[in-house]
Amino acid sequence: MDVEGARAAIQLPEGSWWEWDVVAWDSGQLRLLPGHDLAYRHGLELVSGDPVFVSCPPAFHDPPFRAPSPDELLRVTRQLGGKPPVVVAFEADAGGQEPVSCLIAAERLDIVQETVLRYWRENAGSDQSLRPSVRFPDQQAVSG
């Protein structure tokens, strides 16, 4: 699913999307993975293509997505010198006493729904992908 021009709250497919991790972040993409237990697999990915502004923790829980506020849109527009095609806003439980307001601006947003294993399995079906490691900018591969 491609979500070009998203300025309203994004709608996720039905599922248990409680636990979230940032597993890839570079100039080409920001990849968020949700699931109910990310130690083994995930079934959804939010892929921000060409992210130009990111303010979110590397791991968080239960984010209610919402439309960005006028102040948030103005903040991003001023920092970037123009309106980005996609702005995603949400509140996240990052383990602190208060939720964290998060904001992502990018050229595009893809919502990909597929089963992806986070560990090797001999009997993995052809409908299951495997991504054994993830990369962050300026870091070595990290086992997923």
Give an overview in words:
This protein has 144 residues and is mainly beta. The chain has one domain. Helix content is 8%, strand content 46%. It is built from one helix and ten strands. It has one helix at 70-80; strands at 19-25, 29-35, 41-55, 59-61, 65-66, 86-92, 100-117, 128-130, 133-134, 142-143. The strands form two sheets. Strands 1, 2, 3, 4, 5, 6, 7 and 8 form an eight-stranded mixed sheet that branches. A two-stranded antiparallel ribbon has the order 9-10. Strand 1 (19-25) and strand 2 (29-35) form a beta hairpin. The two termini are 24 Å apart. Residues 1-6 and 126-144 have low confidence and may be disordered.
Query: Tally the helices: what do you get?
Result: 1
Name the shape in a single word: globular
The residue-averaged pLDDT reads: 77
β-sheet strand percentage: over 45%
Radius of gyration: 15 Å
The helix-strand sequence is: EEEEEHEEEEE
Number of strands: 10
Distance from N terminus to C terminus (CA atoms, Å) equals 24 Å
Task: Assign the structural class, choosing from mainly alpha, mainly beta, alpha/beta, alpha+beta, or little secondary structure.
Answer: mainly beta
How much helical structure, as a percent, in the residues? Answer: under 10%
Main sheet record: 8 strands, mixed
Question: What number of structural domains do the residues give?
Answer: 1
Low-confidence stretches: 1-6, 126-144
What's the arrangement of secondary structure elements?
Blueprint: E1 19-25, E2 29-35, E3 41-55, E4 59-61, E5 65-66, H1 70-80, E6 86-92, E7 100-117, E8 128-130, E9 133-134, E10 142-143
Parallel strand pairs: 7-8
Antiparallel strand pairs: 1-2, 1-4, 2-3, 3-7, 5-6, 6-7, 9-10
